[in-house]
Amino acid sequence: MDRKSKGIGMEYWKKIIILLCSGWVTIWVYRSALAPAYPQINASLGGNISDTALGSISSFYFLGYVAMQIPAGFLVDKIGKKKVLIPGFIVFGIAALLISQATSISMIYLGSILAGLGCGSFYGSAYSLTSQNIPQEKRSFSTAIVNSGSAVGSGIGLILSSFLVVQLKMPWQTMMYISVVLIICMLIAFMLIIRGNKEDAAFLAQSAAAEAEIAAKEAKTEVVKKEHVSFKKLFSPKMLFAYILYFATCYAYYMTVTWLPNFLGTERGFEGAAIGFSSSLVAFASIPGALFFSRLADKYMDKKVRFIVILEFLAAAMLLLTVQATNSTFLLVALILYGFLGKLAVEPIIISWLGENAPKVGVGTTLGVFNFFGMMSSVIAPTLTGSISDATGSKVMGFYIAVILLVLGTTLFFIANLNKKKTTI
C-alpha cells in the first residue's frame, strides 16, 4: 500500500508520528507550566490562596480531561478524527487565554476545566490515527516515540516556567501566551496534515488486504457486541489489583508532576531555573526508561509480572529517597532514577499484561475501567497533597502517601499473580 500523502515528500504515517508527538509536547507544556509558578499565581491573586486551592487547578484540569474521554472516543468514530481534534484544540486555546486573563482562582478553575475538555479530544484521535496509519511492524516503537512527547513537553514546560517566571520574574501569564502560540501552530498542522473522512476512505480503498482486515475486525466486533463481560470477571482479584496498582502508579506520578517544583523551591532550597531543571529530570529520564524496559519485557514475555513488581518497588524506593535525601546530589539522583523506573517505564508493561490477562470478551471495557482508575488519581492527588500541605506546613506526607500506595498496590498485585492457575480468567 502507498502510505504517502498527496504529492511528494515524507510518508503520511511518519508525518502522523511527528504531529502526534508534537501534540503531546504542546499539551504537556501547558500542563506543567503552572506548577512552578504557584507562588506567583498566589501573589497575583492577593496572596491568600491556600495550597489546597492551588492544587485544585490541576485537579480541575484532569476532571475535564477524564470527563471528555468517552464522548471524544464516540465522536472520533462518528464524525472523524480531524473534526474532533480541531474544535478540541480551539477550546484548549480559548482556555489557556482565559487563564491568562484570570483575576480570581475561580476563573483559573473554569479555564482548567475547559483546557481538560479540549485536551480530552486528543487521546482517542491520536490512538485512532496511529492504529490506522502506522505499519503494524513499526507500531510499538512508533507509539513509544509519540508518547515521549509528553515527557519532552513536561520537561520544557517546567524549565521554561521556572526560568522565565521564577528566575527572570516575568508574569506567570507568559507561559499561557506561549501555550496559545503552540496551540495555534498545532491547529494549523492538524488542518494541513490530517486527512478528512473522504480521503481516509479513498486511502483504505487502495488496498484489498486492508479492506479484508477491516471486514474481519468488524465481524469480530459484531460477535463481541452479542456478548458481554461479566462483573465477576471484570473485577476478579487479578483485574482489581491491576486497577489498584495503576491507580497507585498514576497517583505517585501526578502528585510528583504537580507538587515537585513547589516542594523543591519551598522545602529544599532550590531557586530559579534550578527548580525547573531538577523537576524536568523525572520527565527526561522516563524516555530511555520506557524504551528500554518495553523492549526488555517484549523479549522476556513470560516475566512481565516480575518486571512490573520490581520496577514499582524500585520507583517507590526512589520516591522515598527523594524526600529523605540529606543533600541535593542524592535528591537529584533519586529523581532521575524515579523517572527512569517509574510510571512511563512500567505503564506499557502493565497495559501489555492487561491485554494478555483480561477477559477474552470485553477487553475494551477492561481497558476503560483500568484507565478510569488511573486518571481518577490525577484528580485526587493534587488537591489532597495541597490539603496536607495546608494542614502540616509540608508536602513530605504527600510523598509518603504516594510511596505507601505504591508498595500496597504492588504487593496486592504480586499476591494475586502468585498462583496463575487459580487466578486464570
Textual characterization of the structure:
This protein is mainly alpha-helical. It has helices at 12-33, 38-44, 51-79, 81-100, 105-133, 139-167, 173-193, 197-205, 208-226, 231-234, 237-267, 273-299, 304-324, 328-341, 343-357, 363-392, 396-416, 420-423.
**Low-pLDDT segments, ≥5 res:** 221-226, 421-425
Radius of gyration: 22 Å
Instruction: Determine and state the CATH class of the largest domain.
Output: Mainly Alpha
Helix content: over 70%
Give the name of the CATH superfamily of the largest domain.
Answer: MFS general substrate transporter like domains
Question: Might you state the CATH topology name of the largest domain?
Answer: Growth Hormone, Chain: A
The coarse silhouette is: globular
The biggest sheet, with number of strands, parallel, antiparallel or mixed sense and barrel status, is:
none
Number of strands: 0
Structural class per helix/strand content?
Answer: mainly alpha
| End-to-end Cα distance | 39 Å
How is the quaternary structure best described?
single chain
InterPro entries: MFS, MFS_dom, MFS_Na/Anion_cotransporter, MFS_trans_sf, Sugar_transporter_CS
Transmembrane segments: 12-33, 53-72, 84-102, 108-129, 141-168, 174-194, 240-260, 272-293, 305-323, 329-354, 361-385, 397-418
Keywords: Membrane, Transmembrane, Transmembrane helix, Transport
GO cellular component, one term: plasma membrane
